[in-house]
Amino acid sequence: MQPSTEDTAKAMQQAEPVTTQAQQRDQQRAEAQHPDASRVPMTMIQALRSAMDVMMARDDNVIVYGQDVGYFGGVFRVTEGLQAKYGKTRCFDAPISEGGIVGTAIGMAAYGLKPVVEIQFADYFYPATDQIVSEAARMRHRSNGDFTAPMTIRMPCGGGIYGGQTHSQSPEAFFTHVCGLRTVMPSNPYDAKGLLIASIECEDPVIFLEPKRLYNGPFDGHHDRPVVPWSKHALGMVPEGYFRVPLDSAVVFRPGKEVTVLTYGTMVWVAECAAREAGVDAEVIDLRSIWPLDLETIVNSVKKTGRCVVVHEATRTSGFGAELAALVQEHCFWHLEAPIERVTGWDTPYPHAQEWDYFPGPARVGAALKRAVGKEA
Amino acid sequence: MTPSPTAPLRLHVPEPTGRPGCSTDFSYLAISPAGAVRRPPTDTPAADTADLATSLVRVLDDEGRAVGPWAPSIHPERLRRGLRAMMKTRIFDARMLMAQRKKKLSFYMQCLGEEAIAVAHAQALAEGDMCFPTYRQQGLLLSRDDIPMSELICQLMSNEGDPLKGRQLPVMYSYKRAGFFSISGNLATQVIQAVGWAMASAIKGDTKIASAWIGDGATAEADFHTALTFAHVYRAPVIINVVNNQWAISTFQSIAGGEGTTFAQRGVGVGVASLRVDGNDFLAVYAASRWAAERARTNHGPTLIEWETYRAGPHSTSDDPSKYRPQDDWQRFPLGDPIARLKQHLIAIGEWTEEQHAAAQKSLEAEVLAAEKEAERHGSLLDGRVPSAAAMFEGVYKDMPEHLRRQRQQMGV
């Protein structure tokens, strides 16, 4: 359905540019590194593409490949133009074989390249599980550093797009359970570029999850409203050149005093909207690096608020929220004034028709925020 | 008789002809006479290798003479080096088997009967090439002068001298400097990685090639198929070695898909040039390896080689083959013993004697014994002198993250 121009204009007026103190710090740091870096509006797609462009230009060893990634530029346009610019041996199409894509990347990394490979949908990483878990994640440890696997595996993830069972999953907990992997998920174009550059430069294997719902604009869960483009947001203004957002660093996305929300990806925007709509002064923390994570920022926040709600799209049982709840309980037990809540996808496969009954939208998150702070809900 | 269309369907489950108490009928193994198979140019199209994937490249005849188009020109000194390396590998295996029985190490895997493949193949590669071995190519390491045998034994004993800090099961070596990729317990994973390594070499315009290793049983893993596909698609400079030793633990190669076909034919089917070679014929292994290496190095793409051999020993120190196959199977295997065959050849051409052989055997036994003693100076499982528990937390990531630092502190190390 194409939203009318009038709707779009209204939505743009509603959209508030969100730039927190920590994000300003990131931007100031980037500016300090590259004072002449010009900023241009970018969607998350363009920001990710720019990250690969910057890294391919800086480092001949950066190689980009995957299914439909080369000539066509990717089914989401994230690699558009890279083959034309860097040639077929730097950016190329791969057979439909996730195990083959990741397996060859491990071999390339062992040779000394820095492969950045794409799995078309996170829902399709499963055939590569053995290579990711048994090989990439273990290479440095099992060979005592003789061989390493500096590689980045990009995977579009998350729901909210009528993707049904196999175009909507959030499999981050499969990866966070694997020692040796880093799992990262940005929530905006600025972080997407900075985190992807940091991931490509990282000497450890990185699972880089991209919430496809956020590719073209932020999404707060109000699916009945038209998409607001990234150009309306400060976080859609991205330096054209090289900059990094450090791994293992969370960011206080929305400062607050009453309750801490631990979240990442699309749910950062949902949580921010839920806090506003529920009238709860929630501190929304965008983890950015899911594991290893920035425990200090989390603990400082929960100790301050005394309450914690964990929010993710992934299914509940043994989801990453369980680890977050356990960490908060271990580190903040004497500061907690309410049970830790989890608002997540249900323990069902991701449905098609029931998309908005499944997706943990602002109403469900808002209700949990109210419960956590003792307001009626 | 035409089966009735209403006859019930039957599931076919392949069986080896020989089980304990009977004799294996090795007629299933297609064997060409020595010298009978043609040697095409190394730029031959993959499709033209179909006949080579069903016949068997052999050089040494029953009298130990090198015959036919594959007979390599190789200096006798290199052959003697090869013979010594095979003998060393067999003696090393026997000694480590004993050390395992004495509980100095927890586990071991011999390559008894398969020594020629790794040793001769290693001689056909160049410095800088990278092998992606399985756990049964110790000949790649034992044929090198720059890898101290005692260091291998330290890995086997997981002692204080273990280069892998006690993190790995015995035999899972890693020697980047020797072109020997880190061994994984997960079967077949390294074959697709070898293809990626070869692609990287091609991307960088390098001249190095990769050599991938897999057993007959593991060809059933998905990674074998992805490796063939990627190798073919990108014309990767890689040799894919399928060591068909007829057995995957207790499972005969027919259950892996070998019945009525060969593993070499898989290569032809996906557009990869393929050879089927006598794996117990040192000269044939060397010649075929050279052919494939030259093909890869001159940008003519990958080669699959099926090496026919026989797993003469138990699968591992945890295995008892008398429970699933005849005791005397190796004696009846038509391709014999690789060491005996090269020895016969060297004697036939006047480059070796029984006396030299006996002397080499004695000196190699002493060398292995001395290496074991040297390794034991760093401890063994028996005395518990293993690497520090702190080493467990290192190398999971390049820099130790906070949570691992905390866990290490919890252990008090």
UniProtKB/TrEMBL annotation, chain A:
Gene3D superfamilies: 3.40.50.920, 3.40.50.970. Keywords: Oxidoreductase. Coiled coil: none annotated. It comes from Oryzisolibacter propanilivorax. InterPro entries: THDP-binding, Transketo_C/PFOR_II, Transketolase-like_Pyr-bd, Transketolase_C. Its cofactor is thiamine diphosphate. Residues 26-37 have a biased composition (Basic and acidic residues). This is 3-methyl-2-oxobutanoate dehydrogenase (2-methylpropanoyl-transferring). The lineage of its organism: Bacteria, Pseudomonadati, Pseudomonadota, Betaproteobacteria, Burkholderiales. One of its GO terms (molecular function) is branched-chain 2-oxo acid dehydrogenase activity. Residues 1-38 are annotated as: Disordered. The keyword ATP-binding does not apply. SUPFAM superfamilies: Thiamin diphosphate-binding fold (THDP-binding), TK C-terminal domain-like. GO terms for biological process: branched-chain amino acid catabolic process; response to nutrient. Residues 42-217 form the Transketolase-like pyrimidine-binding domain. Its EC number is 1.2.4.4.
Automatic annotation (TrEMBL), chain B:
The keyword Thylakoid does not apply. One of its GO terms (molecular function) is branched-chain 2-oxo acid dehydrogenase activity. GO terms for biological process: branched-chain amino acid catabolic process. CDD domains: TPP_E1_PDC_ADC_BCADC. It comes from Oryzisolibacter propanilivorax. Residues 84-378 form the Dehydrogenase E1 component domain. This is 2-oxoisovalerate dehydrogenase subunit alpha. Belongs to the BCKDHA family. Residues 8-46 form the 2-oxoisovalerate dehydrogenase E1 alpha subunit N-terminal domain. The keyword Oxidoreductase applies. The branched-chain alpha-keto dehydrogenase complex catalyzes the overall conversion of alpha-keto acids to acyl-CoA and CO(2). It contains multiple copies of three enzymatic components: branched-chain alpha-keto acid decarboxylase (E1), lipoamide acyltransferase (E2) and lipoamide dehydrogenase (E3). Its EC number is 1.2.4.4.
